[in-house]
Write a structure and sequence with these properties.
Number of domains: 2
Order of helices and strands: EEEHEHEHEEHEEEEEEEEEEHEHEHEHH
Low-confidence stretches: none
Shape: globular
Number of strands: 20
CATH topology of the largest domain: Rossmann fold
Structural class: alpha/beta
Helix content: 25-40%
Distance between the termini: 44 Å
CATH architecture of the largest domain: 3-Layer(aba) Sandwich
CATH superfamily of the largest domain: L-asparaginase, N-terminal domain
CATH class of the largest domain: Alpha Beta
Largest sheet: 8 strands, mixed
Mean pLDDT: 90
Number of helices: 9
Length: 343
């Protein structure tokens, strides 16, 4: 009996990877994804059945917002049974936000959702787009004993596969644009693709559940020496704010000035959720390790542990959208839901 081909759905949202250079004008324009194999003939060599959907109006990733995340989640839901894996082509600037959001919105995944893009358009001679695209598709279609090897939302870029909600974009000039400092790569592509199977998220149990309610009534307060009392108070008292990502120093440290602690305390008393995330790209928040974080713990600031800033934003939007009681919301923020936190 012949082995059936894996079916992979390619979804193009926009971004550099889907651009071609007009040979006459030199300007960049989206290419026709219906002729994808003409642009990337290497795809014809795959033993994978490939289909594609392109946004009617491609968007720059700087314009990414929660409605697009809902659109993507629904696309995956609608095509979930028909395909073995999904590849989302996306601008790199906000790719980590989208990967994080989708990881929370898609519960019980047992198929891969791989986001990729490029630093140079796919029509440029030195593009990194072809390799990223080809290997992302190969990973999306990869199986072991009839089951997908990868069963989570990932980012593939420059020979490495990362857990999406562990990444951040750190470089705008080099091809290795992403890092995952607190979690190892899930796979590395060389002569063959070497999977780090111990690092992969365990296969989801039960039927796929898709969440489409997101609440973006959150703000970010990044601390710096000399933070203004007047402006801090203005931010914390913004009408309608439900949650604050507090970007602190080191292991979650902040000013112990009385006015600052009292402003945070008053916001928490009003029901505002404050999540402590370190400005450091590596390491974690350990509230209470130093005197300068003990007061945050005492007044009810929630530790983000080793969550990334991008994942913290997405997780808050996801949990606020579920309209959970405050105690349950706090519990879920501190819980590892999709591999975004180290145990």
């Amino acid at each position: 009996m012949a082995k059936s081909k894996s079916k992979v759905l390619l979804i193009y949202t926009g971004g550099t990877i889907g651009m071609m250079q007009d040979p006459k004008t030199g300007s960049l324009k989206p290419f026709d994804f219906k002729s994808l194999t003409n642009q990337v003939p290497e795809l014809n060599k795959f033993d994978i059945e490939l289909s594609s959907i392109a946004f009617e109006k491609p968007i720059d990733s700087s314009n990414m917002h929660k409605d697009v995340w809902v659109k993507l989640a629904n696309m995956i839901k609608d095509h979930y049974k028909a395909y073995d894996g999904f590849v989302i082509l996306h601008g790199s600037d906000t790719m980590s936000f989208t990967a994080s959001a989708l990881s929370f919105m898609l519960e019980n995944l047992d198929k891969p959702v791989i986001l990729t893009g490029s630093q140079l358009p796919i029509g440029i001679i030195r593009t990194d787009g072809k390799e990223n695209l080809i290997t992302a598709i190969e990973i999306a279609g990869a199986k072991d004993k009839g089951k997908s090897i990868v069963t989570e939302v990932c980012i593939y870029f420059e020979y490495k596969l990362y857990r999406g909600n562990r990444t951040f974009k750190y470089n705008s000039e080099h091809f290795d644009a992403f890092k995952s400092p607190n979690y190892p790569p899930l796979a590395e592509a060389g002569v063959e693709i070497a999977y780090n199977k111990n690092a992969l998220l365990k296969r989801g149990n039960g039927k796929l559940k898709v969440y489409t309610e997101l609440d973006n009534d959150i703000i970010v307060l990044k601390l710096f020496p000399g933070l203004s009392k007047k402006l801090t108070s203005s931010i914390l008292n913004t009408k309608g704010v439900k949650a604050i990502v507090l970007e602190t120093f080191g292991a979650g440290n902040a000013s112990t000035q009385e006015w600052f602690v009292n402003e945070l305390k008053a916001a928490i008393a009003r029901g505002v959720v404050i999540l402590n995330v370190t400005q450091c790209h590596e390491g974690r928040v350990v509230q209470g390790m130093y005197e300068t974080s003990r007061q945050l713990k005492n007044i009810g600031v929630i530790s983000g542990h080793d969550i990334t800033y991008e994942s913290a934003v997405a997780k808050l939007m996801f949990l606020l959208g579920q309209k959970l009681p405050h105690a349950k919301l706090k519990q879920q923020l501190e819980k590892n839901l999709r591999g975004e936190l180290s145990e």
